[in-house]
Amino acid sequence: MADALSIIPASVLRNLADKLYEKRKNAALELEGIVKQLALAGDHDKITAVIKLLTEDFTLSPQANHRKGGLIGLAAATVGLTTEAAQHLEQIVPPVLKSFSDQDSRVRYYACEALYNIAKVVRGDFIMFFNQIFDALCKLSADSDANVQSAAHLLDRLVKDIVTESDQFSIEEFIPLLRERMNVLNPYVRQFLVGWITVLDSVPDIDMLGFLPDFLDGLFNMLSDSSHEIRQQADSALSEFLQEIKNSPSVDYGRMAEILVQRAGSPDEFTRQTAITWINEFVKLGGDQLIPYYADILGAILPCISDKEEKIRVVARETNDELLAIKAAPSDGFDVGAILAVAKRHLSSEWEATRIEALHWISALLDKHHDEVLSFLSDIFDTLLKALSDPSDKVVLLVLEVHAQIAKDTKHFHDLVVFLVDNFRNDNSLLEKRGALIIRRLCVLLGAETVYRELSAILEKEADLDFASIMVQALNLILLTSSELSELRELLKESLAEGAGRDLFHALYASWCHSPMAIISLCLLAQAYQHACTVIQSLVEEDINVKFLVQLDKLIRLLETPIFAYLRLQLLEPGRYPWLLKALYGLLMLLPQQSAAFKILRTRLKTVPSYSFSGEQLQNTSLGTSHIRGPNHIPVQDGEVKQDKQGINFALRLQQFEKMQRQHRARAKSQAKSQNTSASKVIQTAEGNGQLQSGTDANQPPQRTSRKGPGHLQL
Length: 715
Known about the structure:
Elements: H1 2-7, H2 10-16, H3 21-41, H4 44-59, H5 64-81, H6 89-99, H7 105-122, H8 130-140, H9 146-165, H10 171-181, H11 187-201, H12 212-222, H13 228-247, H14 253-263, H15 269-286, H16 294-304, H17 310-325, H18 336-346, H19 352-368, H20 370-375, H21 377-386, H22 393-406, H23 410-426, H24 428-446, H25 448-460, H26 465-481, H27 486-493, H28 499-512, H29 516-526, H30 529-538, H31 546-558, H32 565-570, H33 578-590, H34 596-606, H35 615-623, E1 627-629, E2 635-637, H36 650-688
Antiparallel strand pairs: 1-2
């Protein structure tokens, strides 16, 4: 220290700590000259002593003016050293860097100025302190003093110039420093970081693309910044990197895909759009590298398909189609289970479009990897079954297609139909609103006969008789009206002539017994007119209720549709089809005379020609021996006697029908009794509490309530 004091005049040291900038500046110039002379003389020990003096007595002084003088003095000493400054940098730079965190903004300003002058002198030798300088500049970029920010900006530009021309810069050491700061929210720091990323990426010898996964998330984070300028800078940097990815033969798609998947779910629209655009390019370029990430990528795409922004929806759909078209096998790392899990999760999405695409994925996997999907069936089957109650018709139709693919296996088909019946039982509105849609679509996908046979077998054993009756009525209406079931109707018309139709008639009859009107409709469809008459005549008072008459009204109207054209044409030959005429008259007798259905049927029967209908034939209808012909003009017996071994045993069928109807009547009586008991308890409770109306005499018998018969029912 004494050497330094003897080298530097006292006046210089005094002026170096003066409060006036000009005096400090002049002192620094004199100091520069002194150091230059020492450097020429090669006396580096004295130079070291001078630097030590400036550091300890000035830059570390509690006096702000001393610290300012010390900084300008260190810069002057570096200038004086010129080419020999490198060997003293470890003494010079650290105290300057320390001054960047000084409490006095003017000291921080002069620290920037000093380091700027030092950097101009040493240039490339400066790189050894790059990480510390970068850290300091990062903090200064957000300094509260505008002058300090301005000085730091000038220093930053100089450091960038030095780095771009240096061959000693280590990108490996710099990246961890950059990564640590990428999630800082300060806008000035963000601008500073994006600026450095852009500059380093422009240097041919620096491979920033290889380290992109380390700071990609931070760049995406800046896309939602409140500053338009920062968003623009981040987007520009990302666009440049994406272009480099397209032109690069080697890219680490996997690590970046994970980041993009997260960002695709950002609440910020611009971030989502950029992320989905990147994913789109990755799917096109990534190839085998992305196979392990398909499930994650799909999880990002599906929600974007329903995005509120059209641009995002368009890109998401394009990406989804690209992903669907890729052929990958489990042996290549394609995880069928993971894809199914994602699709299953998005079946619960609030957005219809997302649910639809999730189903498309399950369907595609069933096509490409059927056995693998079935191995995971227990994980998704319940969800697929519940999806049948989806509010969207499109979703329900797609779910049915998926179920049809699964139901190629008999067990799965049975489970599907059982679940459907359970759902219809538990949710009457589902049967009312969606029943026809679901049943008709299943018939198209799996075959009408197969579906109806399975439904009939299940309903035959149904314990809830009321539900069974409602379900059979719904199935019967679908059978009579749906174009998808036309082949089934044609098969039933052959019931009296061919084995296939007869087997189907037997299969449906057991469950159709739950509804008298369904049985009558089935008989009319199968041209079993004599049995229809027998069923009609077997009906008792309890069977002919409002529900029955409503169903009868529907049937009468259906008889006027093209589906029953064959039946109306048979009325042209009453002599050949006397039981048909008798069955229709039987239905007419059950209808209230004032009802529209009565008038429709009576009008139709009035058109039946009287020729070729003799008294003998009328007598035969009472004896039950009339022979009729089937639709292919094959003579058949429409009755219950003289049947061959392969014919329909109508006597046994009638017993089956009557047995089922007795069960329904018993159930109805039990329910009525239960309701009456409940009503009596309510009255007794009211009497006990004195709540009966004053005009009511509890000792008098109840008034008889007049009931109107079926003839008074208006339909």
